[in-house]
Amino acid sequence: MPLSVLVVGAGPGGVAAAVQLHRLGARVSWWDRTGDIGGLLRNARAVENWPGMPVGAPGSACCDRLREHASTFGLQPEPAQATGSCESGTGVEVARVGGAVERVDAVVWAIGTQPLPWALAGQALPVFHEFCEIPENARRLLVVGGGEAACDGALHWVQRGARAVLA
Questions:
Q1: CA–CA gap between residue 70 and residue 54 (Å, rounded)
Q2: 123 has a pLDDT exceeding 70
Q3: In CATH, which superfamily holds the domain spanning 4-109?
Q4: Using one digit for the tens of pLDDT, what is the confidence trace for 38-84?
Q5: Contact (CB, 8 A) for 69 and 109
Q6: Exposure pattern of 20-55 as b/e (b: 16+ CB <10 Å)?
Q7: Between the chain's N and C termini, which has fewer beta carbons within 10 Å?
Q8: Domain locations along the chain
Q9: CA 78, 10, 165 angle in degrees (round to 5)?
């Protein structure tokens, strides 16, 4: 009987894991909280380090390639969010939002980075954890962080006519 594996996350790492496990003959279940492929790559203004993609390709184009590649193997993540897991005598039990439990032989946690909680006393401004969640008509942004993702997102919105401040 083939190994059953749950892949949690559908960014580049989750796609690679799901495809390779499928190719090796595993029964693959695949969850992503959005049900879509891409993860944080969806936010990328320009991807310059992906072999086979034109230098500076937008993250959305890379996500399209990942979707195409996964669909070649009949793979599509299910919209589901894991809430916890525990080892049992026969493998791993993973609970999802809503209470359903999936029993598998192994789990690949390909969940990438997680934003830190952000709260200010008396906060009245909306907080977004992904640049693609920001309303199209946004004209002023405060981007908290100075890493590559923060800088890339700020540049993306500046190119769209917004004013972005990095803090």
A1: 20
A2: no
A3: FAD/NAD(P)-binding domain (3.50.50.60)
A4: 998 988 888 988 888 899 999 999 999 999 999 999 999 999 999 98
A5: no
A6: ebbeeebebbbbbbeeebbbbbbbbbebeebeeeee
A7: N
A8: 4-109, 115-167
A9: 125
